[in-house]
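Lecture 7 notes: from sequence to structure.

We start with a single chain of 214 residues. Read the sequence below before looking at the structure.
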Amino acid sequence: MKPRRFGWLAGVLSLSLSLFALQCGQGGFTRILVQKDGHWVMDGWRHFGPGDFTLDSTTGILETHGGMGLLWYTPRMYADFQLQLDFKVADTTSNSGVFLRVPAEPTSDDYIYHGWEIQIDQTSPGIHTTAAVYDAEAPSAIAVKPTGQWNHYLITFRRSHITVELNGTKVVDWDAVPRGKVRDFAARGYIGLQNHEGGGPVWFRDIFVKALGD
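Now the structure, written as tokens:
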């Protein structure tokens, strides 16, 4: 029994070390929602528009309230990058999204016409459903988990190519061209999270980004 016990322990230690490496920014990923002095903080994040986000300083979980607004990460603009995060929704009316390459600091809602949104919406179909590139490209499969469970996004944006993996399943693999509500998109921009009126809250945690080719 001892070899089996030690094998199990080695597996646990390996997983723990991998998670620790990721949290410390190794492997090229950097956590962009961070802890200071043992508490989670929103350093580097700013909000535009109605509603807001609140952060639980003990768990590191962001919660949306009202909207439509945008919480964006201000320290840098990204060109080619990978973004990963977890999200879950309160109910089927919940609505949110992850914005890619917001071209400038938002001063109006005009940013929605010049940057892509990876949708979170378990009610709407096609190009408006969870994991769609909103109003432009529908996911090839439905990989979202039931309401109340955490989902994981891995989003890659390289030049004009967008891939979206939801819970380990690649559901978007698309060479982006302006269509739908998006008139054009920038070569570099901010990462943002949307809060949207009219539904239950959405929660986010464990937000990491890796610049590609900088």
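The chain is about 10% helix and 40% strand. Keep this in mind for problem set 3.
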